[in-house]
Amino acid sequence: MAMEARVAAAQKQHVELYRKLRLRRQLLGLAEEGAAYVPFIGDGDIAVELYSDRRIYGADLDPGRVAVAQSRLQGKIIVADCDRWPFPGLEETFAVADFDAYSNPYAAFRAFWAGGGKADTLVLFFTDGHKQGIMRTGHWHKPDGTKQFLKTANERRAAFNFYFPRHVRPWLEEFIRPYRVDQLKFYLRGMMLYWGALVRRG
Question: Which segments of the chain have a pLDDT < 70?
Answer without folding.
Answer: 1-14
